[in-house]
Amino acid sequence: MKFSQDEIARYARHLILPEVGLAGQTKLRQSSVLCIGVGGLGSSACLYLAAAGIGRLGVVDGDPVELSNLQRQILHGTRDVGRPKTESARRTLLHLNPHVQLETFPAHLTSANAVDIISGYDAVLDCTDNFPARYLINDACVLLRKPNAYGAVYRMEGQASLFAPHLDGPCYRCLFPTPPPPGTIPSCVEAGVLGIVPGIIGCIQAMEILKVLLQLGDPLLRRLLLFDASSMRFRELKIRRDPECPICGQHPQIQTLTDCPRACSHSTTPTAEGNHPDEVSVVEMKKALDDSSLGIQVLDIREAGERAVAAVEGTAFLPLSQLLKDPSSLDPDKTYYLYCHSGGRSLGAVDFLKKHGFMRVKSVRGGIQAWSVEIDPRVPVY
User: Fold this and answer.
1) Binning pLDDT at 50, 70 and 90, where does residue 265 land?
2) How far is it, in rounded angstroms, from Cα 86 to Cα 75?
3) ∠ CA 97-98-101 to the nearest 5 degrees?
4) Looking at the annotation, which residues are catalytic?
């Protein structure tokens, strides 16, 4: 299939590049790439993949656009708030390059649909923001022999790598054998992120996929690239394939996909699913604040920057970073309700306190986000 005059003009800088040329551009047009997650990482990655002329580009995301997304998720705009991310991604990407075949999957990836979706593509970008999804994507890509360009961000830092055991590289489980305990690592919803950082990491992910498809250069196959925006420095860690890895090792134990439970939801609308025995609702939190005779102290365990954005009147403040270092300021015989942004960190803090002899502690399910939705809409949602 020949390129049209419009395509020749569009890809002119590729066509005159010795490393790409007409043959390379043809490879890109014949290739298919799946981007799982079209948030901060996926926005920049998809824009550059579409611009590069990938023949078929799939996007997977089950979330709607929220106003807080727009600080970093450049595929979406203000008018898209409330709409599915896949819808605004499709419109933006086709406006950029109408020659790309766009396929959208407005759903979360699960063990039930992962094989069907991923198997139809040559390469995958993991642009998700939670550990259950990363392990699921890794396992599916290993079983299906698909290269997986990984990226993650935290505050002003980011990391990227390429996982592909079928190309003699490691997989995600070789680097991180097991998920961290729930609540121990805050998401960008809880910790924050400088908006441009996921854009940079997403571009690196897209670059790695282009290199694989074009068989160009030296991919991040056995390297973890670490980026620190505050010092504008990159460094690398070598990654070796683990012979004991449960999915890509010498004696693999994982043969089928399973879903890992999510530590906490990032949605601003709390649900009743997955209630934990160590949790109380925001209604119960309000009762504790309204009736001092109950003898329950409500603790805000978020960090100072979060409390400056939004706080619940009448609650005490003890940052989780301080609590984990020294819980001695609390009384083991007293009852405490702990709340954070959305319930993950507070549930982890409850587990920590119980191990230190505190038996009357509870986590507020949904955190301050649930409070804003169910109790007091004047408290800002962030």
Assistant:
1) very low
2) 10
3) 100
4) 188, 340
